[in-house]
Amino acid sequence: MSLPDIKSNAQDKMGKTLESLKTDLQKIRTGRAHPGILDQVSVDYYGSPVPISQVANVSVLDARTLSVQAWEKGMAPKIEKAIRESDLGLNPSAQGDLLRIPMPALTEERRRDLSKIARHAGEEAKVAIRNLRRDANEQAKKLLKDKDISEDDDRRSQDDVQKLTDRFVAEIDKLIQAKEADIMAV
Known about the structure:
two-stranded antiparallel ribbon; 16% strand
């Protein structure tokens, strides 16, 4: 493996870590209706659990209300039950085959808890980024030890990987700040 390969590999993995963090942050509820909130809720569909998005159309009616339209007649009660039993604290109301899900307003204490959860997810992502930096530097050290590269190349590689790490950590900080502002907005 060459130095450019090591750097591009580290960059790809850091990018995937950032995408994973974005996905995790989307699951944190901010009080506004967002179809992604129901992504982790599974419904029993002919004996196997499937995500709601595979058996119904989830859409936003207004800023605080989601609607779920089941594709099959008998699925609405099952979807309603799955949403009630999820740990999201949502209470859907059925109107025929259409489910309306109002988003309850968040309390100040709950907002602080969600903010802590977001910060924790950010810290985990930073740790993952730093681990990737360490792995890339170890791979470069191995090349140096095997005399495939010079000490200058190793130093330059470490500097490049550190710049990459700093860029991704700054991006994580921006994401967390934006999410906290979103959560704390009343």
